[in-house]
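USER:
Class, as today's exercise, take the chain set out below, and explain how the chain folds.
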Amino acid sequence: MPVKCKFCERPAFIKLHYPKMYLCEEHFKEYFERKVRRTIERYKMLKPEEKVLVVVSGGKDSAVTAYVLKKLGYNIECLHINLGIGEYSEKGERYAKMQCEKIGAPLHIVRLKELLGYGIGEVRTRRPTCSYCGLTKRYIFNKFAYDNGFDAVATGHNLDDEASFIFNNLMNWNTQYLAKQGPVTPAQFNGKLVKKVKPLYEVTEREVVAYALANGIEYEIDECPYARGATTLEWKAILNEMEEKRPGTKINFVKGYLRKKHLFEAELEETELRECKVCGMPSSGEVCSFCRFWKLEKPIDFRVEK
């Protein structure tokens, strides 16, 4: 006999391991959306009237973030950063366009090669590719949000991402990172550092994949070519093994970290921020890391004409 949904007579679409239950497609979608809404409320992420910029890569997590925020009634627009990594980036942009068309959300596109002359992986530098890619993406989505008056930036980080990040930094005792991690990063420096939120903070990667499938959300499945061999994938594999043996391991680990986060904050050295003399954005030195890395001589204006 086919297994039935816990709440109705329809066939089960998914078996959840924590909490343990079978759900049909409709009840799973309700469960997922309720979970995201409660996460937003629990961590006071967003107010109904706030203008939210969702950073969409073309992948599942950001696509689901945009979809569910739109469904929950938030005022969203999306930003896609084309990193200039050949066919991988072209596919990502195509998927981002499809995803935003599906939900009727405005999409803004920033292409790195057009903006800075180089794609990720084309810069001659000793700095690891993932390092300067992360720096570049964070700067662009924050500056874009600031220039266009957004109240918050939403990213697609899920529970698996957060658990592996915390695990990695605990194993290496990176207390500076552990002091700053969390579901919400408040606005700072007179709003020039825009508030960052993670609506999928308490949902697993498996649940995100299932929600995308249930709603017909198409997404890029290829990993970034520069992410191959990344240590975060190893930490995820270890956590997945532990989760299989003891369901609830990931969420309990992350919630435990949040309860003890103040222990790491006590070691956090307060860095006095100042305005970058090139772009005017927050910086710990005279010139911010972005302007210094890309050798900029004048600020980039991301304001969109209305």
User: Anything to note?
Assistant: The domain at 28-220+232-268 is CATH 3.40.50.620 (Rossmann fold). The longest helix spans residues 129-147. Strands lie at 14-17, 20-23, 51-55, 75-82, 107-111, 152-154, 184-185, 195-197, 274-275, 282-283.
